[in-house]
Amino acid sequence: MSEGLKVTVLGAAGGIGQPLSLLLTLSKLPIRHLSLYDIRLAPGVATDLSHITNVPKITGHVNPAEALEGTDVVVIVAGVPRKPGMTRDDLFSINAKIMQGLIKNVAIYAKPTCCVCVVSNPVNSLVAVAVETLKQYTSSTDNSGWVENRVFGVTTLDNVRAETFSNNKDVIVIGGHAGKTIIPLLPNGTEVPNYEEFVHRVQFGGDEVVKAKDGKGSATLSMSWAGFRFVSSVIKAKAGLLNGSTVSENELVPAFVNLKYNRGGKQLQNKLRSPKIEYFACPIKLQNHTGFVDYIDSSCLRGIPAREEKLIVQALPQLKREIQKGKDFVAKTDNSKL
Ligand code: NAD
Ligand code: LMR
After folding, report:
1. Which end of the chain is more exposed for a tag (fewer CB within 10 A), N or C?
2. CA-closest residue to ligand 2 atom 8
3. 3-state SS of the chain: helix, strand, coil percent to 5?
4. Residue where a domain terminates, one of 120, 154, 188
């Protein structure tokens, strides 16, 4: 058993950040130190959590550098949520700036092997913002994939919704994390009572919550549960527990990852008949001890029915546009102003 990891939550005082931090506190995962940062209230949230019996070291910070020092895993839930009538893309200009500033600190203060879990929206664009910004600040200049292997867009909530709405725990969601880019794949030979309704509800489940919360935010509790599910897998992998008694060696988890620099990415691009698409959500295998992407498993795309092929074709243009938007944003930023 390792000594445990330092896990940092950025945006820890928010609607997702607080319950996610509670779940991490209670988890009994190999966390040595839970570090919380927000532009407001992080020390208060940390003090509150630290009164729970038998928990890891918990600290709250008003300074991101201090929060991130020596971090093994970072979860980014900082940013603005949607209000009714908005798309996730409408959050881009505010949240991309927040992401860039935070990632600069991750690059400088976290461990160079730190796994970065991006929850903030729009995920389809902000993962590229995170990767490109990390690349600007890390010493690796050889494009070896050092950065692309360890940045994950967290799309687990789409999978949680699809499992719930289909009542089938083997359903897989691929693509991206916005409307039509979200593509549920039912296991071969299974059906749901109304396929079109099911697909629409998975694709627009986020809007359902935004509408129900009536201007007071988007999914927070289901997201903190989904985020916890994903981050737990990364923590277990990084702590070297994948081949142990708790996790199956072959366990796959969904995430939105880079295809160019990750094993299995090329095969996925070929299956999508889109050789240039740079990011896609798909089941991935995490590497034991590093928590990085080991490989992308695109076997879920084998022999899919025409109705699912059609969803992929519909998703690709929007997905490509949103990925490019993130890359362009970083390319035209003056680093010295971050
Ligand atoms: P929230 O407003 O409740 O919390 C966000 C927190 O971020 C706030 O506490 C705020 O103070 C903090 N923050 C803002 N700027 C910051 C900065 N520069 N540094 C550190 N902290 C900062 O919002 P929420 O409901 O927790 O949602 C957070 C983000 O997660 C939103 O962008 C939302 O769209 C996204 N989200 C993603 C998914 C997903 O499936 N990936 C699901 C739900 C929500
Ligand atoms: C979700 O899917 O619930 C999140 O991406 C939040 C949102 O804006 O819908």
Report:
1. N
2. 82
3. 45, 15, 40
4. 154
